[in-house]
Fold this sequence. Notes:
By secondary structure, the chain is an alpha/beta fold. It has a single domain, classed as TIM Barrel. The chain has helices at about 5-10, 25-35, 40-50, 125-130, 145-155, 155-165, 170-190, 215-235, 250-260, 275-280, 295-300, 305-315, 335-345; strands at about 55, 60, 75, 80-85, 90-95, 120, 135-145, 200, 240-245, 260-265, 285-290, 320-325.
Amino acid sequence: MTARERVLGSLDRKGYDRIPIKHVGTPEIDSELMAHFQLREYEELLRIVGDDFRYVNPRYIGPELKTYPDGSWDGIFGERYKNIAFEGGVYPEAVYLPFEGIEDVRELDGIPSPSADWFDYASVPEQCEQFGNYALIVGDPGTPDFINGIARCRGVEQVILDIGLESPVFLELVEQRFYFFYEKLERTLRAAAGRVDIVHFGEDLGTQNGPLISPSSFERLFADRYKAFFNLAHKYGARTMMHSCGSVYRFIPRLIELGLDILDVIQVQAADMAIDKLAEEFGDQLAFCGSMCVQSFLPFGTVEDVRREVDHRLDLFPKGGLILGPSHAIQVGTPLDNILEMYRRAGSLAR
């Protein structure tokens, strides 16, 4: 089977030669894996671990995104990021928030918004041809990512307040973000001419113990917009995949109604997110991506623990319905042997 045939076989519950794989690691973990295999290119790493997916997105050709003397850099919404060190690595955090403190919608008028014209869609067919045997994805977990994306421009606490109060400023930013991503996605899908298999969206709706926002807030603020996004993907023959951390159990029935095909990343340590429970309740309506826990057995278990968890998922999804991968990016400090065993036991590791 080609990678694409394997993925589509799993999504259609028609079986596969091995379970599909989607690798996600922090830069530090990816560097460790590449050093282990003596690789120079990330693409080589994806081939060795057996990743069945490739991302196809238009190239950025918009206004220069500057890097500043302090090491920070521009994002496309006017925010600015900087790598913040933690034990073992770095993580990019927003350090300049262009919408911080704005309380009147009229104050947004002087702040430029990104344009779908800032991207080169002519590059998409070439990318599709380059990765012809893989399942192709457009978008990413930051599409549209209303909560996190606006928080990186306005502040996390402010956005939580905005959602509760249904702030007009927040609602305007949601609207602007929706139209930007909708046009960008449609132009990308049109350029791909039916070759895209999955459109990747993201919205972190959960915490470790339950929803981040109420289902009623989701319904009022976001549901119609996600329905429009999901309909757009289906119009071009693609499946929909939505990244969400934490406990999103209470949202799943509604997401299925809206048109979600694949839930990513299945944080199994979060409340009500055990993979057995999800498979039993929703497995005939929804596929899953991830579930190999970056909070427990991958970083802190043994090789035998990892092997047992992979086997359990193979038993749960013998004909498909699961794309195997970590429950988020594999974190710094995770033993290399555990990572390799995950892919070895799944049958994807090429060395």
